[in-house]
Protein 1
Amino acid sequence: MNMLRRFLLCLISLVLLAVAGGLGICAFRPDSVKFSLERTLRVLSGGQHFWWLLLAAVVLLLLGALCLFVSLARKSAPTQVIIGKSEGGQVNISMEAVDNVVKRAALSVSGVKDVKSKLKAANNGVSVNLQVALPHDTNVPETATAIQTAVKEQLQTITGLAVAEVAIVVTSVEGRPTKVADTNYLGG
């Protein structure tokens, strides 16, 4: 947990403890509710604590906005993957380097025109999602299997990473079909 999240958690905890304490006192001493409300109304209507109240309101508003931002912020994807540990330390590889290996492996398969990749570090290795463009006269199942095999073998050979899966989506089939016969045959 980073420092900002710890700080926010601490502030939220203090505010919640204060509110819980106030509610607890009100539960045991119902007359304290009336006293607290009268005192609060007197302070608010008197105007003598205007700047302190405004400061408290701004701080609570900023704290709430910051908590909302931190809670909705996306967790960043890892930029490195550990590929080895030994007594001397550990060896990491950047996800960019892994992505280069994946793209080169996919493009090494005959007929692959274009490759877009998404990598995800998983507990059991790396998950690879590829979007590929193939020529029109390509056997898609055979080519997809060849891409999966090439990517998996290259990743394991070059980086030593285990490959959890290689998912492929064929996004386009490019080029013109080869002319086999006249398609205007009506039969008869």
Protein 2
Amino acid sequence: MTNVRRTLTALALPSLLFVVASPSAAQPPTAPAPTTTGVLTTLTVKSEVPRDRITAVLPDEVRDTVKLYLDGKIQQWFARSDGRGVVFILNCTTVADAKAITDTLPLSKAKLADFEYMAIGPLTPLRLLLAPQK
């Protein structure tokens, strides 16, 4: 019976988190405003740009990206599975700060890539699990 309970709990927790995290879920009036601790940034190489233009800029792009990582501005970075760019988690508290960082990159300067930004932070609805039980 313990395995069944564990399985049910494992299946129910993601559903609970989805419901609690959804915008329509009621937030308690004392819930603090969400804190932005990073910015998820996607870099997508423009499809109309010839590949040789990208490869000409790539050595400088990689060098500058490594510098940003070593300076603590990039927390994590990933290659997109579709091969069209990368995803960064930047150590910023605003999208404007993240844009200022990515604007320094060679692909951005040459207008060879598009960027999208999303402020991210802790999953604050988890606070509901810490509230005293009534």
